[in-house]
C-alpha cells in the first residue's frame, strides 16, 4: 500500500474545501515517504496524506503531541500547522506541516563529525520524562528480545561481519534493562527521517512513531545517522547513557540496520514497498555499529 500514490487534484480539492486561504499556493510532488505521501506547499509548508494501514492514527499522534514538544527541540521539525479532517473527499485525517528544509540522509548522508553535538543536543532536549498518557509502542522503547532475530540475521548470514553482529546483539539483549521513568522518544530515527544541509543534521521529520520508554531505541541513531568515529563524541555530549544503555543502543542499531537492508533490498529488486536508498544506509549503519 505504501507504493500507492494520490494525485495533486485531490490535494488541491482538499485545500479548497478546508483551508481555502492556502489553496492557490504552488503544490509540488515530493519523492519518498512510507505511510504518508507528501507534497511541498509553497515555500514553507508541506501536506501529508496517509496511504498505509495505521498511518492515520500515527498522524493523530503527531497532531496531538508534536506542537508542544517542538517548542523545546533545537532542530526544525514538521510541526502541524493545520489539521485536515475526514470528509466526503477523503476518509482520513491529513496534515499541513511546517516544511523542514534539507535533503533526506538516505540520499545525502551526514558527513560532519560536528553533527554528533547537534544530534546529542536534540535528543537530550527530547528525552524528558513522558506523561502517563504518552503513546506506548508495541516494538519501540521496549526491552530487546532474541525472538525473531534469527529471521533478520539471515539477511547478513554470509556477510564477513555476521558473527560480530550476533555478538553485539547478544550483548545488548543480556544488558540490564532500563529501570528509569518512561522517556519521550522519536521512535523512528533512521536516515530517511532526518534531513541534511552542508553535511550536517538540519532537521528531524516523521514523528508518527513518537512514544515513551527506553531511550536506547533513539540512541541507536549514533550509528544510524552519524559518520564513522562520531558515536563516542555523541555519547560524551549526551552524557546520560551508562554502559548498559549504550550496549542496548548498539543492539538496536544492528536491528535497525537489518531492517534498512531488508527494505532496501526489496527496492533494489523492484518489490512493493522497497526503498533502494535504504540498503546502502543499512550496511553503513552495520559497519559503524560493529566498530569500536
Report on this model:
The protein has 292 residues and is α+β, with helices and mostly antiparallel strands. Helices cover 38% and strands 14% of the residues. It has 10 helices and 10 strands. It has helices at 8-18, 55-69, 115-126, 149-153, 162-174, 216-219, 221-224, 231-238, 243-268, 278-289, and strands at 27-29, 36-41, 45-50, 80-84, 94-98, 103-104, 183-185, 194-197, 200-204, 211-213. The strands form 3 sheets. It has a 5-stranded antiparallel beta sheet with strand order 1-2-3-5-4, sandwiched between helices. Strand 8 (194-197) and strand 9 form a beta hairpin. Helix 3 packs parallel to helix 8, helix 5 (162-174) packs across helix 9 and helix 9 packs antiparallel against helix 10. It is globular and about 55 Å long. It starts with 7 loop residues before the first helix and ends with a helix. The mean pLDDT is 96.
Amino acid at each position: 500500500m505504501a507504493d500507492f500514490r494520490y494525485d495533486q487534484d485531490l490535494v488541491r480539492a482538499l485545500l479548497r474545501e478546508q483551508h481555502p486561504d492556502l489553496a492557490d499556493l504552488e503544490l509540488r510532488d515530493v519523492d519518498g515517504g512510507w505511510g504518508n505521501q507528501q507534497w511541498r506547499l509553497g515555500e514553507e509548508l508541506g501536506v501529508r496524506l496517509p496511504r498505509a494501514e495505521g498511518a492515520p492514527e500515527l498522524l493523530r499522534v503527531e497532531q496531538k503531541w508534536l506542537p508542544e514538544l517542538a517548542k523545546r527541540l533545537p532542530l526544525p521539525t514538521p510541526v502541524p500547522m493545520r489539521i485536515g479532517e475526514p470528509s466526503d473527499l477523503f476518509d482520513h485525517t491529513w496534515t499541513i506541516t511546517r516544511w523542514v528544509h534539507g535533503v533526506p540522509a538516505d540520499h545525502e548522508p551526514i558527513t560532519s563529525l560536528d553533527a554528533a553535538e547537534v544530534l546529542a543536543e536534540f535528543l537530550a532536549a527530547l528525552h524528558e520524562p513522558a506523561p502517563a498518557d504518552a503513546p506506548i509502542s508495541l516494538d519501540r522503547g521496549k526491552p530487546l528480545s532474541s525472538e525473531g532475530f534469527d529471521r533478520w540475521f539471515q539477511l547478513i548470514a554470509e556477510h564477513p561481519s555476521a558473527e560480530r553482529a550476533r555478538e553485539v546483539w547478544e550483548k545488548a539483549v543480556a544488558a540490564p534493562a532500563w529501570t528509569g521513568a518512561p522517556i519521550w522518544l522519536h521512535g523512528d530515527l533512521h536516515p530517511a527521517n532526518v534531513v541534511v544541509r552542508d553535511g550536517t543534521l538540519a532537521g528531524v521529520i516523521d514523528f508518527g512513531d513518537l512514544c515513551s520508554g527506553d531511550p536506547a531505541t533513539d540512541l541507536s541513531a549514533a550509528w544510524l545517522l552519524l559518520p564513522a568515529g562520531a558515536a563516542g563524541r555523541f555519547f560524551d555530549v549526551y552524557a546520560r547513557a551508562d554502559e548498559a544503555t549504550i550496549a542496548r543502543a548498539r543492539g538496536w542499531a544492528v536491528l535497525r540496520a537489518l531492517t534498512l537492508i531488508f527494505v532496501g533490498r526489496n527496492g533494489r529488486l523492484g518489490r512493493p514497498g522497497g526503498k533502494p536508498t535504504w540498503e546502502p544506509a543499512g550496511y553503513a549503519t552495520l559497519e559503524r555499529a560493529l566498530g569500536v
